[in-house]
Amino acid sequence: MKEYDVVIVGGGLAGLTSAIALSKEGFDVLVFEPNKYPHHKVCGEYVSNEVVPYLESLGVALDKAGAVPITDFQISAVDGRFAEAKLPLGGIGISRYALDHTLYKRALEVGVNFIFSKVSSINFQNDAFQVNTASEVYKAFIVIGAYGKRDALDKTLNRNFSFQKHAWLAVKAHYKSPDFSDNLVALHNFPGGYGGLSKTESGAVNFCYLAHYDSFKKYPNIDDFNQKIVAQNKNLDSFFKVSEPLFEKPLTIAQIAFERKEPVVNHILMCGDTAGLIHPLCGNGMAMAIHSAKLASDCIVTYLESKSKDRSKLEKDYQKRWHTTFSKRLWYGRKLQQVLLHKKWVNSGVGLAASSGKILRYIIRKTHGKPIV
To answer: What is the mean pLDDT of the chain?
Structure first.
């Protein structure tokens, strides 16, 4: 049975970032990822500048990957009225196709091991983990769960949300759109949902939206839903009319859960969306995933370098840091979603935001963090 200091289940943003950080500290790290790189993922593809200095400290230069600087934010109501503001920190636009691949290449450079296979179960006994695939068993002192919004593993770990039905689904596609601004991230509301637009390194515009299933199920396919519901927002209607879809078909994820999740489950440190999912309207899920990886990595380094190896202290430290860093952001995200899904509230809110830039800047600050190194 092969042993590792740390096994990371999931090779997305949180998994790759923590793998790089821990491997740079000299630990033996293994990442399990079902899909080989590069590949697309359902994601907003906007990254706040709050995590860029940290990525640079890990040797990840996103400007060399072609990331597009983003400085401006726009939000619109269903009826098309909109408000605009400058982003206090700014951010970058980059596809998950390019970003994950960039992180993967850096991980290989610092000695991270990869197995492109799905993990079937994770067992903790005798103060160590056994990580099982369909054909092999691996041992680790630490396991990080970074496998995304929802996975069969959640049921094996008896996570409550995994046994419930959830009403949200996400749809993502890239478009060729000559009129869309390079430096803009835009959030547009439509009946029963909302979606974000931003440029990526290829010049394509990413459109990723969240829709309530009760609205979506009335239509036979995504194209019909886009034309009949999404395009009720005048800004999105204009976007569709001048844009050319670049994917053969959109990517989708169903059964998305926004309920509270625990950052430590059965001694596994959960990172990124596996630990807690922020609503896409906050536009900051990618930065949160990377930041959570830093929190976990810092705690793990302290634990593995300690003579006492107090696992209880490790878990309590990570939980405390995670809640201190993200709980308020997630709370604001849930409250903002309630507003956005109420037609009268969002119309009034956008109207107020259009007349006072302070309101919009306040909301942005509450859902973003400060730069980390």
So the answer is: 89
User: If we measure between CA atoms, which residue out of 187, 328, 155 comes closest to residue 257?
Assistant: 155
Query: Would you say 46 and 58 are in contact if contact means Cβ atoms under 8 Å apart?
Result: no
Strand ranges (DSSP E) for 183-233?
184-190, 193-199, 205-212
What is the C-alpha separation between 18 and 298, in angstroms, rounded? 9
DSSP letter at 204 equals P
**Domains of the chain with CATH codes:** 2-367 (3.50.50.60)
User: What is the model's pTM?
Assistant: 0.92
Nearest partner of 37 among 121, 95, 119, judged by Cα: 95
Per-residue pLDDT tens digits for 184-204: 999 888 988 889 999 999 999
DSSP structure class, residue 369: -
Report d(CA 356, CA 366) in Å as an integer. Answer: 17
Q: Please write down the HEC assignment for all residues of 267-289.
A: CEEECHHHCCCCCHHHCCHHHHH
Contact in structure between 145 and 269 (CB atoms under 8 Å): yes
pLDDT band at 329 (very low <50, low <70, confident <90, very high): confident
Cis peptide before 38 (omega within 30 of 0): yes
Q: Look at strands 68-76 and 244-245 and give their pairing.
A: unpaired
Residue range 77-92: average pLDDT?
84
Strands (E), the chain: 2-9, 29-32, 46-48, 68-76, 82-93, 113-115, 121-125, 128-132, 137-145, 168-176, 184-190, 193-199, 205-212, 244-245, 251-256, 264-265, 268-270
pLDDT tops 60 at residue 298: yes
Strand duo 193-199 + 184-190: pairing: antiparallel
Give me the percent of the chain exceeding a pLDDT of 70: 88
